Amino acid sequence: MALYEHVFLARQDITAQQVDGLVEQYKALLEENGGKVGRIENWGLKSLTYRIKKNRKAHYALMDIEAPAAAIHEMERQMRINEDILRYMTIKVDAHEEGPSAMMQKRDRDDRPRRDGGRDNRGDRGDRGDRGDRRPRS
Q1: Torsion angle, CA of 36/37/38/42, rounded to 10 degrees?
Q2: Angle, nearest 10°, between helix axes 69-81 and 16-32?
Q3: Which CATH superfamily, name and number, covers 2-95?
Q4: 37, CA 20 to 30 Å: which among 2, 6, 45, 129?
Q5: CA distances in angstroms from 38 to 41, 50, 114, 138, listed in the order given
Q6: pTM for this structure?
Q7: pLDDT tens profile 8-20
Q8: Domain limits, the chain
Q9: CA pair distance 102, 10, nearest whole angstrom
Q10: What DSSP element (H or E) covers 87?
Q11: Alpha-carbon distance 24 to 31, whole Å?
Q12: No. of H helices and E strands in the chain?
């Protein structure tokens, strides 16, 4: 059986529990048609770059799938019918990634390389404390 990564976007006005219900519905459909679902990640509600069917945000979900092509076609057919699904994409892969996906790996701001090469560009401002070097306001 072939390996796939499947991501879908659900409408912003449904709850996270309803998104989990959609994932379980499509997981059951794939298993009925001889497939298996591995990793499932719910990426949460994220802003869209542009509006899709009058939605500015969407719930994102990822599924790693091992299934025959017919099962994938049936799942995509049912997603086209479902009004809660805005977009979906299924990609055939050679192997599933281990661990969390790139979306789930939270990079700490301090771990990123600095644009200025690590220099402190503030210059020598000295210690002015309570701004005593200024003349009093009149």
Answers
A1: 180
A2: 140
A3: Ribosomal protein S6/Translation elongation factor EF1B (3.30.70.60)
A4: 45
A5: 10, 31, 37, 71
A6: 0.71
A7: 999 999 999 999 9
A8: 2-95
A9: 20
A10: strand 85-93
A11: 10
A12: 2, 4
How far, in whole angstroms, is CA 48 from its chain's centroid? 11
- How far, in Å, CA of 43 to CA of 58, rounded? 10
Task: Quick: pLDDT tens for 93-132.
Answer: 998 878 777 777 765 455 556 666 665 555 555 555 566 6
CA-closest candidate to residue 29, choices 93, 81, 96, 86: 81
Q: Which residues pair with 33 in a beta bridge?
A: none
- pLDDT score of 2 more than 80: yes
pLDDT in tens, 48-104: 999 999 999 999 999 999 999 999 999 999 999 999 999 999 999 998 878 777 777
Inter-residue contact 58 to 11 (CB < 8 Å): yes
**CB-count burial class (<10 Å; 0-12, 13-18, 19+) for 127:** exposed
How does strand 36-52 pair with strand 55-67?
Answer: antiparallel
